[in-house]
């Protein structure tokens, strides 16, 4: 490659990219590249393409380097863009290819920006879907099964017992020693239910219901024939007549 041929290409590039092009040496240039289109919501994105021309250019590929000037470029994105540029350069071997490479890079950057925007929208929709599902699950509640109900009932019983014990302890703190002792005695007295459960046959146990000194009377031992009515007494008396 003659210096004159490369100088002519540099002159053409300067006319196309007056503010974007920087000539580093007679064998190397740098061009600031932006996407062809901007996408709403996407941050400013600009790359710098460095091109180093070998002696065999344009019959050989130039050495290409990419760096982010504004915005961010992931390693995976960088490798994909650079690979795409190499492929395009191989298709244009034998011709001045710098303008073609820059145009191709602008197109690829536009596709990347659109992909980022679409991914952002998908993430927002997924986040919204998860939020809706979480709200529905919260309002719908958890289905009740026999096992879950038993677990809840046991837990509730323990909590109520603990609360009752705590309330009693707080109440006892306010009692005098005498009141505390009376309260303890009252709580240790058996309840009516406990007494009933101790002897479920109380209604058939006459001895347990009789008080001391009570006399048992069997009314069946009395014979009505042995009783004397007033009429019988009158019949046994002697009657006197006035006629006598």
Structure write-up:
The structure is a single chain. This protein is of the alpha+beta class and 244 residues long. Among the domains are: 3-120, Ubiquitin Conjugating Enzyme, CATH 3.10.110.10; 145-174. 54% of the residues lie in helices and 11% in strands. The protein has helices at residues 3-16, 75-91, 98-140, 146-173, 177-188, 192-198, 206-209, 230-236, and strands at residues 21-25, 28-33, 46-52, 63-70. It has a 4-stranded antiparallel sheet, with helices on one face. Strand 1 and strand 2 (28-33) form a beta hairpin. Helix 2 (75-91) packs antiparallel against helix 3. This is RWD domain-containing protein. InterPro entries: GIR2-like, RWD_dom, UBQ-conjugating_enzyme/RWD, ZC3H15/TMA46_C. Residues 160-244 are annotated as: Disordered. Pfam families: DFRP_C, RWD.
Question: Gist?
Answer:
It comes from Rhizopogon vesiculosus. With 244 residues, the chain is α+β, with helices and mostly antiparallel strands.
Topology:
Blueprint (H helix, E strand, L loop, with lengths): L2 H14 L4 E5 L2 E6 L12 E7 L10 E8 L4 H17 L6 H43 L5 H28 L3 H12 L3 H7 L7 H4 L20 H7 L8
Would you tell me the overall average pLDDT?
79
Q: How would you sum up the global shape?
A: rod-shaped
Structural class: alpha+beta
Which strand-content bin applies to the residues?
A: 5-15%
Features:
11% strand; 54% helix; Ubiquitin Conjugating Enzyme; 4-stranded antiparallel beta sheet; 244 residues; ZC3H15/TMA46_C; UBQ-conjugating_enzyme/RWD; alpha+beta; RWD domain-containing protein
């Amino acid at each position: 490659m003659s210096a004159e041929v490369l100088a002519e290409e540099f002159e053409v590039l300067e006319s196309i990219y007056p503010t974007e092009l920087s000539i580093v040496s007679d064998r190397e240039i740098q061009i600031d590249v932006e996407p062809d289109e901007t996408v709403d919501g996407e941050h400013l994105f600009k790359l710098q393409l460095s091109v180093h021309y070998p002696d065999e250019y344009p019959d050989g590929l130039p050495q290409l380097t990419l760096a982010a000037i504004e915005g961010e470029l992931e390693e995976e994105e960088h490798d994909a863009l650079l690979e795409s540029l190499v492929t395009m350069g191989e298709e244009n071997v034998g011709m001045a290819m710098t303008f073609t490479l820059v145009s191709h890079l602008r197109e690829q950057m536009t596709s990347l920006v659109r992909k980022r925007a679409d991914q952002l929208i998908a993430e927002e929709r997924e986040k919204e879907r998860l939020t809706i599902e979480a709200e529905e699950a919260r309002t719908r509640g958890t289905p009740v099964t026999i096992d879950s109900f038993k677990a809840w009932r046991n837990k509730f019983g323990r909590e109520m017992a603990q609360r009752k014990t705590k309330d009693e302890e707080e109440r006892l703190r306010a009692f005098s020693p005498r009141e505390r002792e009376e309260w303890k005695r009252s709580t240790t007295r058996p309840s009516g239910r406990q007494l009933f459960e101790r002897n479920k046959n109380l209604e058939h146990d006459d001895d347990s219901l009789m008080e001391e000194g009570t006399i048992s009377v069997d009314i069946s031992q009395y014979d009505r024939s042995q009783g004397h009515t007033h009429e019988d007494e009158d019949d046994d008396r002697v009657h006197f007549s006035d006629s006598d």
